[in-house]
Design goal:
By secondary structure, the protein is mostly helical. The chain has helices spanning about 15-20, 25, 30-45, 50-70, 85-95, 110-145, 165-190, 210-215, 225-230, 230-260, 285-310, 325-345, 350-360, 365-375, 380-395, 405-410, 420-425, 425-430, 440-455, and strands spanning about 150-155, 155-165, 190, 220, 265, 350. The longest helix has about 35 residues, at about 110-145.
């Protein structure tokens, strides 16, 4: 008979057992479930709600189950429905009648909320650590490329010269924001909800603060309905994971582009590329493509859980069982993505010579040419028109701006002087941009130093 079967006269249909059961996926929560139960039983004994001797037997029995589960010695039972009932059933089998007292003063509703919050907290800390490794890798790479000039793009058209370090530091800012989002998700999960019961608390004199202390929660929940009905902390993690995967996907898209023969800005390491079954010359950036593809999978889990939650009345509903598979798969996908991306990034070869040649083409110094005229007293809008005419002339002549002679330049405006050629070199275009956040090497160095300080916080 099911542990909850006293009110029922018929056994559940086998189809219902299979459809209803969650042990196939929520067994992942065994560590959290058993640890939470140990804290609950300890508190029950301390409060005199159950005999102290029974509490000690329960705690020792749970510790034995935890050891066995960690060693893979336990075969979880489908007929026990979920991880909570599995643990309680196994405990009672091992220690007898005392095991039946474990569930005093709680419901599976607040129990599963506790377990998933503990899991979410651990997932946030894990992700934060992985982001910090990625950030260190990016900062080390940026440090090596303070003076590597490359074209910056808008609309995927060459726009202005920047440095590779400046480009990489844009992603540093993104991943620093991601770290903050996972810290916020941690804070959202860091609320101890045990004691909410099924929805209306309990008549037992539980010491909820003691359980929070034992389980390292900062605060206890303030409303029993919300305690069992809230899944915002999961949505916070999924939202943070989705944005982080979006950032990884953008970076992967650039690496994929840069790896093409048309760009040739990077060379992917053989260990992070694959070949073709028919075309022997191929070296495909499959790792980057898979991360880009799996991003949609994480987005889907966020939208899926939002959809599950959007129409649920208070308090707990069985629909909420659908939260775990989405959360677990999103966490797994993000962890794998961060792990392989960081490893791949460490092996990428950035081709300085090709990048610098790329910056020289496409009139990336055109804005600087207009700024030069402005400094000579020409209104910007007039300077913009003059340089536009110069670019059209160069296109017809198949020349770059620096290929023109001073005499040719003066045909378009008399303000041009010999010093224009110093102003239009790629190095000058980058080094002149010396305001905070700009690509001049000394400004990027400040940004690197600032990011390293943030990482220490």
């Amino acid at each position: 008979m099911k542990l909850w079967g006293g009110r029922f006269e018929k056994a559940t249909d086998g189809l219902v057992d299979d459809f209803h059961s969650s042990i196939s996926f929520d067994q992942r929560l065994f560590e959290q479930d058993i640890t939470g139960s140990i804290a609950h039983a300890t508190m029950l004994g301390e409060q005199g709600i159950i005999p102290a001797g029974d509490a000690e037997k329960i705690v020792e029995g749970l510790k034995g189950i935890l050891r066995d589960a960690r060693e893979g010695k336990i075969a979880w039972r489908m007929d026990a429905e979920d991880i909570h009932m599995n643990v309680e059933t196994l405990l009672t089998e091992r220690i007898g009648e005392a095991g039946k007292r474990l569930h005093t003063g709680r419901s599976r509703n607040d129990q599963v909320a506790l377990d998933t919050r503990m899991y979410a907290k651990a997932a946030c800390r894990e992700t934060e650590a992985m982001l910090e490794e990625l950030l260190e890798t990016l900062l080390d790479t940026a440090q090596q490329h303070l003076h590597t000039i490359m074209p910056g793009y808008t609309h995927l058209q060459k726009a202005q010269p920047i440095t590779l370090a400046h480009h990489l530091m844009a992603y540093v800012q993104m991943f620093l924001r991601d770290r903050n989002r996972f810290r916020q998700a941690f804070r959202a999960a860091d609320v101890m909800v045990l004691g909410s019961g099924a929805l209306a608390g309990t008549t037992y004199p539980l010491n909820r603060e003691r359980v929070a202390e034992l389980l390292d929660f900062s605060v206890i929940s303030e409303n029993s309905l919300d305690g069992v009905a809230d899944r915002d902390y999961m949505l916070d993690y999924l939202a943070a994971a989705s944005i982080c995967m979006m950032h990884l996907s953008r970076f992967c898209e650039e690496l994929i582009l840069w790896n093409t023969n048309e760009f040739r800005f990077v060379e992917m390491d053989d260990a992070f590329a694959t070949g073709s079954s028919i075309m022997p010359q191929k070296k495909n950036p499959d790792v980057a493509e898979l991360i880009r593809g799996k991003t949609g999978r994480v987005f889907g889990h966020l939208m899926g859980l939002l959809t599950v939650m959007k129409g649920l009345p208070l308090a707990y509903n069985k629909d909420m069982q659908e939260d775990k598979e989405a959360f677990f798969d999103a966490r797994d996908t993000l962890v794998k993505g961060l792990t392989v991306f960081t490893a791949m990034l460490k092996t990428v070869t950035f081709r300085r010579d090709v990048m610098e040649r790329g910056a020289s083409g496409g009139f990336t110094n055109a804005t600087d040419c207009a700024d030069y005229l402005v400094k000579k007293g020409v209104p910007f809008r007039d300077a913009h028109r003059v340089v536009g005419e110069l670019v059209a002339h160069c296109l017809n002549e198949k020349k770059a701006l620096l290929d023109l002679t001073l005499e040719e330049l003066k045909q378009f405006h008399s303000a041009f002087e010999a010093d224009v050629f110093d102003d239009l070199s790629m190095i000058a275009c980058v080094e002149k941009r010396r305001i905070p956040g700009a690509p001049a090497p000394d400004m990027v160095q400040l940004a690197i130093d600032s990011a390293r300080e943030k990482l220490k916080q």
